[in-house]
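Hi all, long-time lurker, first post. I run a small reading group and we've been trying to get comfortable going from sequence to structure in the token notation. Rather than ask abstract questions, I figured I'd post a concrete chain and ask someone more experienced to write out its structure so we can walk through it together at our next meeting. Sequence below, copied exactly:
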Amino acid sequence: MTIVGNPNLVERSEATSAGGDGPASISDALSELKSADESARIDVESIRDALGDRAFGPLFFLIGAISASPLGAVPGLSIVFGVIVVLLGLQMFAGEHRLWLPKRILKISTDRDRFAETLEKMEPWVERIERIVTARFTRFTERPWSYGVAVVVTLIGLSFFPLALVPWGVTPPSLALMLIGAAMTNRDGAVVLAGQAIALSTLLALAWATGAF
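-- Answer (accepted) --
Happy to help. Here is the structure in token form:
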């Protein structure tokens, strides 16, 4: 993994949590990512641009899935993902329609072949998830209900910082984030609510287990 570029520079890209152009399902998002960039390495900027509008849901799913996979064991990756999730959660809460990430994060890259291998391993799981996650109760994916989603994903992102010190510690909240991301992308309000409940229960259980309470 490499980091290049001036950390003081920033870029913005169109993104909305529900609406606009972009993948209508997680399987669509994976297809977009496979053809995103054919260079030897793929960076966060290429992933963001490939997803286009409605990037919040697919990005939450992708971050959750990678964090819960062997690729998530790359040193420092959980911290980077935690920063990204917190930034996205805050932007969702503020009602921003343009996805902002620092230039330094946008230029973080990984080997394309390894990334493609991770996407391929996701496909069977995506097929199973999309048998359950479908467009219904869509109002729960929109304002004012999306405020709750923003708060929950921000808490998940914050939990990545202490849990990064524990081997596979980010796996439980990552799975909850993955479920929320899939539900947001497919506009499944019922699963969005269920995902938030699972996420909060997981965070409370981890806090209790680690003696935070």
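A couple of things your group might point at:
The radius of gyration is 16 Å.
The longest strand covers residues 10-14.
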